[in-house]
């Protein structure tokens, strides 16, 4: 009995020793995991920086050709028509500036290199009558474009209007006669801000340089570039070299990301201590050899049925055991795997790398295997088929013998899905690019013949009115009317398309101020239609793009008095506390319930234009798009003859609910 007590005491001492060793090892493993988590976190951030810098380059490369081609078409129309009247050229140029946010201005420069026409004039007054020979680089670029008879793009310059950018020169030759240039002025800051989503600039620092000169900078003060998490690369566009630097903004102190590594370390230590205590009591209660044996069998069954393949190696890198999943992954029986080196399961170049490994923890180097990290390698089946494989290796000791545990996962399906996803993304990008090109043609090249048709119809009416008679004059007037209507439809369609592509600047503003601004803009129309706009509640602060919200209010107010037969037309704007939604209600003719959501379909007219006036039918469609771009929704309640209530919500920047 004394011997049994002594044996039990020795076993308890052994249990305590094992527990202490386990705690120490667990703490060391926790520290290592903490270190690895920091490295992995920085690597993930750096990959994000790489992806975002490549996205900037992609936006530059994909957007610039469309703008250049559009300006070249303007030059070609000048040549084909042997000159362009200023009024038509001005309309065309204004469309180009409206459609391309980075295009600061379009100019016509005469053959003496003096700027004569500028669109828009506002903000570009300093360019009018400017002699471009004032700077040697500008004159050299103009001479080159004239001599080569093709467009050229300048190196970055300080714009005379202010800011930094670059210029594109399109020489005009009518026959052999040189008539000057079509000149595109590009503002780098406007161009980059229009290409990048607001969230993109919000969480990353960005600098774009040409040569050693900073052309664009959005960064936190005194926050320098860090190569661990940032990325810098260069690309050329129209023979101009650009350098892009992207790195993350400073993580706010006390945020989840800033503390996550320390939390992981503390959790690891606490878990290690708890695991040690649990192991102590487990060993104390399992002194019986039979119970220990049963638990050992349980652990083996757990490993055997694990979802991932598990392989153990000895200190020479030779396979000692595998589970069923590993057999299935490599399509080999257990007996064929045990005794082989781990390298035999890989294809080149990984096979050679792992054959050269010295399987001792202190001698494992990068390029062979990294303990505690997951690595993508090329696995190989017994029939020679190669497939992607994720491999993670950890090391441990049993009876002072160093062993290795390999966890393997077949990534064939995941890689195939990623490739298919990338293919679909490329197809979608191509489709979007084709749609954009169609939009440019619809906006510009279709408007050109429409204007010509309207002009010729007017000329025919002026010159041959007496010959044509009333029926002929009516048909010409109808032709002018239909041409103008078609031009409005094209403009509304292009504007609707642009609403879906642009990323508006968002900020907090006062809703009452926006309502009064819109009311002031409509003051003459309201007086003409005998309509009043009233406000009957307080409003919460609004987060959004004020210009777009005012446009939303404009469309809903116009809709309220346009489809209204009341002697006194009233449009009331309020905030519904129960629905957490803004409401624009009128005392108009109402909407028949049979139309449902047809009111939001583009170009859908529910009422006769002869009775309620002309319109393209795009107002409510544009209103819906503006609300959706602000993360909200729009709907209406109406009864025929009793008016209509349009409700809309806006998503707040700090809260995840609607209506604020």
Automatic annotation (TrEMBL):
Keyword Acetylation carried by entry: no
Catalytic activity: ATP + protein L-histidine = ADP + protein N-phospho-L-histidine
TM regions (residue ranges): 12-34, 260-283
Keyword Transferase: yes
Residue ranges the record marks as coiled coil: none
Alphabetized PROSITE patterns for the sequence: CHASE (PS50839), HIS_KIN (PS50109), PAS (PS50112)
Single GO molecular function: protein kinase activator activity
SMART domains: CHASE, HATPase_c, HisKA, PAS
EC number, as in UniProt: 2.7.13.3
Domain annotation CHASE: ranges: 113-195
GO (cellular component) term, any one: membrane
GO BP terms, alphabetized: osmosensory signaling via phosphorelay pathway; regulation of DNA-templated transcription
Compartment(s) where it occurs, according to its Swiss-Prot or TrEMBL record: Membrane
InterPro entries to which the protein is assigned, alphabetical: BphY/WalK/GraS-like, CHASE_dom, CHASE_sf, HATPase_C_sf, HATPase_dom, His_kinase_dom, HisK_dim/P_dom, HisK_dim/P_sf
Keywords from the UniProt entry: Kinase, Membrane, Phosphoprotein, Transferase, Transmembrane, Transmembrane helix
EC category: transferase
Domain (Histidine kinase) ranges: 441-654
Domain PAS: 295-349
PANTHER family recorded: BACTERIOPHYTOCHROME, TWO-COMPONENT HISTIDINE KINASE
Protein name: histidine kinase
Source organism per UniProt: Pseudoalteromonas luteoviolacea S4060-1
């Amino acid at each position: 009995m004394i011997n049994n007590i002594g044996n039990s005491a020795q076993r308890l001492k052994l249990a305590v020793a094992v527990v202490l060793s386990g705690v120490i090892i667990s703490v060391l493993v926790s520290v290592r995991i903490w270190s690895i988590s920091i490295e992995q976190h920085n690597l993930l951030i750096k990959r994000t920086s790489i992806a975002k810098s490549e996205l900037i380059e992609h936006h530059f490369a994909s957007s610039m050709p469309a703008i250049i081609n559009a300006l070249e078409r303007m030059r070609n129309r000048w040549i084909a028509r042997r000159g362009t009247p200023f009024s038509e050229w001005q309309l065309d140029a204004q469309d180009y500036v409206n459609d391309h946010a980075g295009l600061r201005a379009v100019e016509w420069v005469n053959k003496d290199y003096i700027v004569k026409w500028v669109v828009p004039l506002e903000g570009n007054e300093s360019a009018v009558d400017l002699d471009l020979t004032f700077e040697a680089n500008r004159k050299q670029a103009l001479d080159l474009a004239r001599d080569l008879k093709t467009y050229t793009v300048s190196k970055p310059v300080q714009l005379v209007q202010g800011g930094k950018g670059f210029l594109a020169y399109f020489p005009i030759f009518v026959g052999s006669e040189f008539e000057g240039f079509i000149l595109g002025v590009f503002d780098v800051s406007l161009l980059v801000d229009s290409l990048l989503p607001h969230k993109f600039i919000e969480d990353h620092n960005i600098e774009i340089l040409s040569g050693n000169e900073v052309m664009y900078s959005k960064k936190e003060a005194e926050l320098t570039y860090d190569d661990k998490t940032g990325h810098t690369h260069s690309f050329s566009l129209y023979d101009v070299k650009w350098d892009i630097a992207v790195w993350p903004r400073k993580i706010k102190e006390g945020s989840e990301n800033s503390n996550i590594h320390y939390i992981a370390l503390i959790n690891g230590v606490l878990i290690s201590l708890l695991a040690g205590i649990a192991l102590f009591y487990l060993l104390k209660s399992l002194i019986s050899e039979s119970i220990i044996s049963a638990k050992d069998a349980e652990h083996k069954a757990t490993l055997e049925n694990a979802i991932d393949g598990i392989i153990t190696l000895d200190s020479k890198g030779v396979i000692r055991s595998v589970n069923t999943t590993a057999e299935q992954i490599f399509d080999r029986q257990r007996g064929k795997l045990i005794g082989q080196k781990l390298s035999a399961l890989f294809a080149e170049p990984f096979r050679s790398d792992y054959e050269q490994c010295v399987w001792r923890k202190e001698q494992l180097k990068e390029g062979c295997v990294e303990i505690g990290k997951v690595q993508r390698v090329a696995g190989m089946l017994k029939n020679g088929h190669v497939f992607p494989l994720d491999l993670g290796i950890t090391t441990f000791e049993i009876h002072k013998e160093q062993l290795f545990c390999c966890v393997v996962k077949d990534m064939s399906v995941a890689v195939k899905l990623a490739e298919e996803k990338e293919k679909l993304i490329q197809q979608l990008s191509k489709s979007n690019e084709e749609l954009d090109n169609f939009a440019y043609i619809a906006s510009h090249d279709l408007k050109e013949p429409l204007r010509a048709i309207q002009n010729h119809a007017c000329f025919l009416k002026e010159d041959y009115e007496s010959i044509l008679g009333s029926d002929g004059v009516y048909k010409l007037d109808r032709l002018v009317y239909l041409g103008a209507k078609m031009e409005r439809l094209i403009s509304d369609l292009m504007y609707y398309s642009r609403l879906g592509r642009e990323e508006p600047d968002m900020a907090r503003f006062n809703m009452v101020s926006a309502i009064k601004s819109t009311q002031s803009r409509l003051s003459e129309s309201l007086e003409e239609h005998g309509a009043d706009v009233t406000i009957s509640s307080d409003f919460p602060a609004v987060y959004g793009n004020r210009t777009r919200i005012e446009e939303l209010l404009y469309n809903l107010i116009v809709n309220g008095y346009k489809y209204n037969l009341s002697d006194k037309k009233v449009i009331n704007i309020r905030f519904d506390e129960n629905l957490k939604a803004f409401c624009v209600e009128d005392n108009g003719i109402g909407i028949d319930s049979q139309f449902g959501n047809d009111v939001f379909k583009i170009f859908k007219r529910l009422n006769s234009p002869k009775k309620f006036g002309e319109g393209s039918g795009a107002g409510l469609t544009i209103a819906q798009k503006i609300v959706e771009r602000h993360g909200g929704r729009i709907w209406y309640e109406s009864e025929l003859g009793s008016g209509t209530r349009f409700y809309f919500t806006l998503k707040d920047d700090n809260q995840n609910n609607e209506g604020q």
